[in-house]
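Justification of resources, computational component.

The compute hours requested in this renewal are based largely on the per-chain cost of generating structure records like the one below. Each record pairs the submitted sequence with a full structure-token output. That output is archived, and it is also reused by downstream analysis tasks.
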Amino acid sequence: MQGISFRRSSVAGLPAGSGSALPALLLVGLFFIMPVVALLLRSVTDPEPGLQNYATLFGSGTYVRVFLNTFLVASVVTAVTILVAFPVAWMLAIMPPAMGSIVFGSIVLSMWTNLLTRTYAWMVLLQRTGVINRALMGLGIIHEPLPLINNLAGVTIGMVYIMLPFMILPLVGTLRAIDPMTLRAAALCGASPFEAFRRILLPLSLPGVAAGGLMVFVMSLGYFVTPALLGGTSNMMLAEMIAQTVQSLLNWGLGSAAAFVLLVVTMALYAIQLRLVGARRAGGGI
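The structure output for this chain reads:
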């Protein structure tokens, strides 16, 4: 029949072709939007309607210290992870493909190892009578065991080890996309290795650093197992506080408020990164 169109009509006022996205939208609404809304409602209705949970959260010195400690630990872990991951990613980017595949596979394989098992392994390694302290004392580097557990040092070591793959993976992709001839041209023009790194390699690798850094920072904000086992009470992080508030104190309202604040901070950081990356692209920085 001439003139008849078989174009799929819009569904419920949505653009044509959007019907295929409805299952995904329903899943997002069911498993993400509804729990977030329920979390927000509980934070302002339990035990009674109002903002008393948020007032308690930001008015108590104890909770404020937990917030500050959470951001401190996340910042330190992110910075150390970047410093450790960058040379590893650069090595993977320039080494022969066969060797690079083996090293890359080893890094990915570490992500499949049970998190609790890895954390308990670090507890054994870092304790006062652990392998690290005994090795350092045997070499004569130290005379007394170092306090490497139940403090910021232990949390940082354990979390950096766990976060390294999440920093290395985006960095490798970015570094492999950089043309090696760019660095050779800089060397031919008289640039020192440090100048070539500072003015060429580092700026070109910033998208990978930003993507990996945001991922590590956001994951560190909500981490629970490693800080709980390797950190002490003075290094409590927000996720551990939420768990204790809900499980021990049965204060669902306060726990929901803390979890919602953590979610808002995470989404704000992601929005800032998208805005900065968009600005760099618009300005030709990437």
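The radius of gyration is 24 Å. Residues 1-11 have pLDDT under 50 and may be disordered.
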